[in-house]
Amino acid sequence: MPITEQSIDQAYSDLRRTCGGQRNDYFGLLYLMQEFGVERDVALEQVAFGGNDYGVDSFHFDPAKRNFYLFQFKWSSSYEQFKPSFKRLTDFGMERIFGAHTQDQHQNQLLLQMKSCILENEAIIDRVYIHFVFTGDPADAERSQVLDKLREDLENKKYLIDQRFGRAVTLVIEFRSARTRKVGSAAHLRKTHSYPIELEETISREGPAGETMTVGFIRLADLHAMYREMGERFFERNIRAALPEDEAVNRSIQQSIKRIVIDGKESARVFAFNHNGVTLFAEHLDIQNGGFKVTEPRLLNGAQTVTTFGRFIKANEGNKNLAEGATDDLRVMCRIITNATPDFVTKVTINNNRQNPVDPWNLHANDFIQLELQDRFRDELGIYYERQEKAFTNLSDEQLEEQGITEHRAIELTKLARTFLTVDGDIDKLTRFREVFEDDRIYNQVFSESRLKADLRKVMLCYKVQFRLGRLSDAIVDKGANKYAYVLRSRNLLWALLCQAILNDQKLEDRAEKFGKGLSLEAQYTDWLSTLATTRCRFILADLVADKAYAGKAAEGNFGFMRSNAAYGRAMEIAYKRWRWVQKQPR
Asked: Is 533 in contact with 539 (CB distance < 8 Å)?
């Protein structure tokens, strides 16, 4: 018998006086009883009723299969409901469940039950399953960029499981639907990546919130071994992947290695002097047998060094000068960051990726707000949001289809940022665009959480204007080449005025439904914009140029004022007065 809202309501009504908790807690109770055949009295001991759940609503142990299950339940079709649960489980839950170093006096009864179950059955638990159960389609959850990032963070905590059991235990993370019983197509089975490393002459420093930075000199061979096994996952925290072989920085590294290893013209010890070093983030760093062991390492900067070294090794296979151990003395300074939150790691990544030229917007490509926007554009409009430069061009039609993308053009991060600035009337920053991404305060204003609540159809109406600004400016100039020539130098102001005209259009909902669901520049959309530009914006701009505050500058041919926020503000005052005047006219 399938779980229904009625059955949840009935269980809630029957048991809430004795168990308490929220209605959603009873979804978990019924799921255990139905899917695993757990008796109700037993299931009641395996479900959390109330708060402080550490990202886990329920657990179950199957001795026959030797599986230990953790559950998070959401009686909702929206996978977005799992985001806070992922964070709680990653930040606190995994450590609390699998061996905390400190204790929480407010831990709930479920946590105590889980610890007791693990203690009693630790010898026979072979696999840990984490199931995120909801009523939606698991395929949608699998496609989410946000959940993919959160799942990666959760998977990196697997080492805690292995430490708890003293051996490698399989971790599987799945999305499941309680309605259709579908399971996500990509169940993630993870192994813990741990590597012994040689780290010479180490020092350490503690960060402001207990973060640890260990500095030493690491062998390139050790970094290469990590990359060889982990592949691109080793770089997943890095903002920028490897550059092509013919880039100047990579040619320089290759030549340096060749002079040392093949030609024997330089000492290997000089390499560290000529190299800026690399930075790693790791879940754990242990001192082991006089050396070190690093767990779940991620390269924050230094991708060019690691990939170039790998290319060098491959290109010189069979070279008699590249004997075993020939590269062992090649070391670079390495900083290893541990005990750090994802936000802290992101800031470190940004500040450690300035060795090669990079545009500031690329440094924000992996910000959580950008992942959220990517999910929203895909889910609501079927449009790919290209937060990472050139990412869209590398996708095949099949990959787009798998991601649920129906539009074969992409929204670009920089163009979206310009749209937000324009809609806000902050047009002076369009001429100082890099500053938007270099100043955290400005960036957080442009990409605030409020953007996630906006109607994306209306955002699209304003976004697409930038592709017609040239034609719209020409349409105004055609009304009088001498009179309106300045419009060609005030396109950003025209864009901002058009956005306000769009958002105040009496038929906005119809326009949004008709023109705001894709990137096509429909003829009717362009005609509508042209009407707004020539019958409304044209006269506002003319009044602005004639305004006493700007008339003198305009007479001198100095129209730079039209790129200022003050000019936009005055233009909006003029527009409001014109609207009031029109409203007063007899119809």
From this structure: no
Comparing C-alpha atoms, which of 152, 304, 297, 296 is closest to residue 241? Answer: 304
Q: Are the C-beta atoms of 8 and 37 separated by less than 8 Å? A: no
For residue 451, the tally of other CB atoms under 10 A from its CB is: 16
Which residues of the chain have a pLDDT value below 50? 241-246, 248, 582-585, 587
> What pLDDT does 357 receive?
60
Q: Of 337, 240, 242, which Cα lies nearest the Cα of 295?
A: 337
Please give the pLDDT value at position 535. 92
Burial class (CB in 10 A: 0-12, 13-18, 19+), 498: buried
Name the 3-class secondary structure at 297.
coil
Whole-angstrom Cα distance, residue 134 to residue 179?
A: 8
Q: What is the pLDDT of residues 38-54, one digit of tens each?
A: 998 888 888 887 666 78
CA distance 72 to 176: 10
* Helix (H) / strand (E) containing 190: strand 188-190
Query: For residue 223, which of 196, 242, 184, 260 has the smallest C-alpha distance?
Result: 196
Q: How would you classify the pairing of strands 284-288 and 194-197?
A: unpaired
H-run or E-run covering 88: helix 83-88
Report pLDDT for 246: 47
* Residue with tokens 């009337």, as numbered in its chain: 425
**Crossing angle of the two packed helices 303-315 and 248-261, in degrees rounded to 10:** 50
Question: What is the chain's alpha carbon radius of gyration, rounded to the nearest angstrom?
Answer: 29
To 10 degrees, the CA torsion angle through 277, 281, 283, 287? 10
Non-local CB neighbours of 556 within 8 Å, separated by 6+ positions: none
Q: What is the pLDDT of residue 329?
A: 86
Whole-number pLDDT of residue 467: 95
Burial grade of 476 (CB within 10 A; 0-12, 13-18, 19 or more): buried
Residue 509 has what pLDDT?
A: 96
Separation of alpha carbons 546 and 408, rounded Å: 45
Q: What's the angle, vertex CA 534, arms to CA 530 and CA 539, rounded to 5?
A: 150
Looking at residue 248, what is its pLDDT? 45
Instruction: Give the span between the Cα atoms of 198 and 332, in whole angstroms.
Output: 11
Please enumerate in sequence order all residues whose Cβ is within 8 A of that of 453, keeping only pairs 6 or more positions apart, or say none: none
User: In this structure, how many other beta carbons lie within 10 angstroms of the beta carbon of residue 156?
Assistant: 25
Nearest to 258 by CA among 244, 271, 242: 271
Percent of the chain with pLDDT over 90: 47
